[in-house]
């Protein structure tokens, strides 16, 4: 997963990179099984939709062995360390469910908008890297990006406490319209195991999932260790306070579990 | 728009036919202008989302000249008369807005389910033909079909009075899952002016429109004159009671308005 100069340039221009099938079907399967395990837990970290379906499991790398390994996987860590030019820590870790029929909308937002406002992260020197645990199609609520929308810093936003079960700083309609007229819109789609890396200022959203197919995605939000957050307002399992550099594990750390035929708890 | 035997066979198998660009850009533009005119009206026929944005204008062919012409347009009428094998009347006429940002979901349903239950239409000898007034993309809430789901008649359904502003007989999750595993899912996309014809038992839905692009579609629900409804429970402008066969106008009836440069009210 060492990025080429062409990929680095494309990331700088468009704000994202997509790697269909970067993880094997077996690796994705063992992670999907782990996701189902954590969604069954009654923990503060597991948030639910208004319907009761799982929406997000936060910090699953701290209480599930399979997700612990994924949180230090070199195929996710190394490209981010390369782009951020140094060691990284885990700012946030989410297993987002977007359940069949019930998975609700995520409104238009920039992740760094929240990290700056709520957590006082000094610079947008942080990044998301996402791994699909299900096939993502046009039907099951894919992530929608506005390319090039990461280049002007943080836009004004309002704090939406009403639309879904999760509070979010969301952008207004006029700004989204302007950005989309300029940059267009994309919705990367691909098999389970695909990896999507995007700038923490890239404007994105995802529609509800009305299909019968679930759409689970793991998000690692990685931050350069020098750029750690300065305010501890949100729960520790939403905005982590352990700024230790992550040491990547070996590339086969999940394949070993997959061979053993089951997720580790 | 005379259908070939191959098209008729495909309709019987899949439950729908799609004709990208069947109407010209100019024809679509004059109709879009007419849609904006009718959405501004304060009439019982114009329904709004919970947000206040227009959702549907019913029976616009009865109070707008441009939509009157579309309601007798040979490019819409003739393929339906061919498939239903005889003269048709207008059972329902809707201009559905699916507004940018605010357009809400239509849950999984069969149109004939409603027509049979609410209106006592004797047979599924009726059909929808839809015309896109905006480009329909993967981003602005396209119609999603489950191919082949029209072949087993009407499925059980529950009357959903809560999800949106419009009451609808909707199918349960287990049935949708079973049908989609068998038939898959499609979401026809194309430019303004595209035409989509589908069986009145074909299971369909559409997700909310979270994009900055509106997605207006006109739906003509045409019924064989012998198969007219027997119960008049719903408003006359939702389920029409004029069973007179529609005489198709000339093919250039809208182009004439487009040349004149504006919609007729």
Main attributes?
alpha+beta; 265 residues; seven-stranded antiparallel beta sheet
Fold and architecture overview:
The structure is a homodimer of 265-residue chains. With 265 residues, chain A is α+β, with helices and mostly antiparallel strands. Chain A is 26% helix and 21% strand. Chain A contains 7 helices and 12 strands. In chain A, the strands form 3 sheets. Chain A has a 7-stranded antiparallel β-sheet with strand order 1-10-6-12-4-3-2. Chain A has a 3-stranded antiparallel β-sheet with strand order 5-11-7, with no helix packed on it. A two-stranded antiparallel sheet of chain A has the order 8-9. In chain A, a hairpin with a 5-residue loop joins strand 2 (46-48) and strand 3 (54-58). In chain A, helix 2 crosses helix 7. The first copy, chain A, is globular. Chain A starts with a helix and ends in a 5-residue tail after the last helix. Chain A binds chain B through residues 100-101, 105, 107-108, 138-139, 141, 144, 173, 176-177, 180-181, 185, 187, 205, 207-208, 210-213, and chain B through 100-101, 105, 107-108, 138-139, 141, 144, 173, 176-177, 180-181, 185, 187, 205, 207-208, 210-213.
In short:
The structure is a homodimer of 265-residue chains. Chain A has 265 residues and is an alpha+beta fold. Chain A has helices spanning 5-14, 25-39, 65-70, 74-84, 111-119, 173-183, 253-260, and strands at residues 16-19, 46-48, 54-58, 88-96, 106-109, 126-132, 144-145, 158-160, 168-170, 195-199, 204-206, 217-224.
């Amino acid at each position: 997963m060492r990025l080429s100069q062409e990929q680095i340039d494309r990331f700088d221009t468009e704000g994202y990179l997509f790697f269909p099938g970067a993880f094997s079907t077996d690796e994705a399967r063992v992670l999907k099984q782990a996701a189902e395990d954590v969604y069954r837990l009654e923990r503060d970290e597991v948030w639910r939709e208004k319907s009761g379906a799982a929406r997000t499991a936060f910090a699953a790398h701290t209480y599930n062995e399979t997700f612990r390994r994924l949180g230090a996987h070199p195929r996710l860590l190394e490209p981010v360390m390369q782009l951020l030019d140094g060691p990284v820590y885990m700012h946030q870790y989410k297993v987002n469910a977007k359940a069949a029929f019930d998975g609700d909308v995520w409104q238009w937002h920039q992740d760094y908008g929240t990290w700056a406002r709520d957590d006082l992260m000094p610079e947008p020197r942080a990044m998301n890297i996402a791994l699909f645990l299900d096939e993502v199609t046009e039907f099951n609520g894919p992530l929608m990006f506005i390319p090039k929308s990461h280049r002007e810093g943080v836009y004004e936003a309002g704090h939406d406490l009403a639309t879904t079960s999760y509070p979010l700083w969301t952008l207004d309609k006029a700004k989204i319209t302007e950005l989309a007229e300029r940059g267009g819109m994309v919705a990367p789609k691909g098999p389970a195991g695909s990896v999507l890396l995007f700038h923490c200022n890239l404007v994105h959203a995802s529609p509800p999932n009305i299909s019968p197919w679930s759409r689970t995605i793991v998000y690692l939000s990685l931050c350069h260790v020098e750029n750690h957050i300065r305010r501890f307002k949100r729960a520790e399992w939403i905005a982590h306070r352990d700024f230790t550099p992550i040491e990547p594990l070996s590339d086969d750390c999940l394949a070993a579990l997959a061979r053993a035929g089951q997720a580790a708890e």
